[in-house]
Write a structure and sequence with these properties.
By secondary structure, the chain is an alpha/beta fold. The protein has helices spanning 6-26, 35-64, 70-73, 108-111, 136-139, 161-166, 170-179, 212-227, 244-255, 286-291, 294-300, 320-331, 350-365; strands at 92-98, 113-120, 127-134, 150-154, 187-191, 237-242, 260-266, 307-315, 337-345. The two termini are 45 Å apart.
């Protein structure tokens, strides 16, 4: 029974209810002052409290997509996806397909399609699962030779790629925007920045470890272009993410403007942390550590020819002051273009990001080409 399944939540709620009823029913029998009665009261209260906390934790995890499985929760996840035979299947293997829910149809040419895929990096050998949204226009006969712009969408850490589809509703939002004429039809490639779970690599090429930045800057675009009718012009891809994914999106757009012509960070940080989840990302390489710090980049390297968007909230986000400072620093470069979404209030959560995603997708679409 999966950590994110409705059955798990229902079982936790049922257990809490039964424990509560049992406590009320047995309390008179445990009213004595001997050690057995006291132990029974303590045990029942503790079990009921634990059951209630379990219900709350499972419900919050379902709402925000922090952990995909028990292995993910306890840090024992080692599966990096299915290795694809390049000779027969190429770097992208489609595992399953589904329609975009709520779009009034089941045919790909009218409702679009979400493909669950496994992607293998040609140079980094990183293998990771992802979800690819193909708009209805991709399947329409008159567009069979047309190429489409691509936006890479990253979750936070730990996060789940599926949450980008089910909780943040990227495919459905993109389709609504296209129908309203506010966005051009676009391929969305949705995945976690954590491509070497359970480690938080912060999209860094770790010396002697996973070459995460190279995967996103080189291998992922190559794999997608080899499998889909994706635009190949330089700077015609976009990248967006929330939290850790937002930091990665900004950094990749700044490091690789030839690949990513636009990068959007929803509630991002502006430098890579070093903690128990990341380990030693830089292995003493000071230059590597400096380049992972967006503040250092703005001071010491030529301004990249790319467009950036950052979001925050005046109340509820801890990055608000840093975001205002980052906007000012980028404006001083003259070449890098900066935009922002600043909400009056909103926490570091899915509800806030859902309020920002429509404007973000419209912004990023306006900076990408289609053919």
């Amino acid at each position: 029974m999966g950590l994110t399944s409705n059955k798990m939540l229902a079982l936790a709620i049922l257990s809490a209810v039964l424990l509560f009823v049992g406590t009320v029913w047995l309390w008179p029998r445990l009213a004595r002052r001997n050690w057995r009665a006291v132990s029974g009261r303590v045990g029942l209260l503790l079990a009921t409290q634990l059951a209630l906390f379990a219900c709350l934790g499972i419900a919050v995890n379902q709402a925000f997509g922090f952990y995909a499985s028990w292995a993910d929760l306890f840090g024992t996840e080692t599966d990096q996806g299915v290795v694809v035979d390049h000779a027969s299947g190429g770097p992208v293997q489609v595992v399953a397909t589904s329609e975009v829910h709520g779009m009034g149809g089941s045919l790909p040419r009218t409702a679009g399609q979400v493909q669950q895929v496994d992607i293998v990096g040609r140079t980094t050998h990183i293998a990771t699962p992802a979800y690819v949204y193909l708009p209805p226009e991709y399947f329409q006969p008159q567009n069979r030779t047309r190429t489409f712009p691509v936006v890479v969408v990253l979750s936070g850490y730990p996060g789940t790629a599926r949450a980008l589809v089910d909780k943040l509703h990227y495919p459905r939002t993109a389709q609504h925007l296209v129908r309203d004429g506010r966005m051009r039809p676009t391929i969305l490639v949705m995945l976690r920045p954590t491509v070497a779970p359970p480690r938080d690599t912060e999209c860094v090429d770790i010396p002697g470890g996973p070459q995460t930045e190279t995967f996103f800057a080189k291998d992922l675009p190559e794999a997608v272009r080899a499998h889909y009718r994706a635009v190949g012009k330089q700077g015609r891809w976009g990248i967006v993410g929330d939290s850790t994914g937002g930091y990665c999106a900004l950094k990749l757009a700044m490091h690789h403007p030839d690949m990513y012509g636009a990068g959007a960070g929803l509630s991002p940080s502006y430098k890579a942390p070093l903690d128990a989840t990341t380990g030693d990302l830089f292995q003493g390489d000071r230059q590597l550590q400096n380049r992972a710090n967006l503040w250092w980049l703005l001071r010491h390297e030529p301004a990249p020819d790319t467009s950036l968007l950052v979001t925050s909230s005046r109340i509820g986000e801890t990055n608000y002051k840093d975001t205002l400072k980052f906007i000012t620093r980028v404006q001083a470069t003259k070449l890098t273009r900066i935009s922002s979404i600043i909400l009056d209030s909103g926490g570091h959560n899915f509800n806030t990001w859902r309020r920002e995603i429509p404007a973000t997708l419209q912004w990023i679409s306006g900076r990408l080409g289609g053919h």
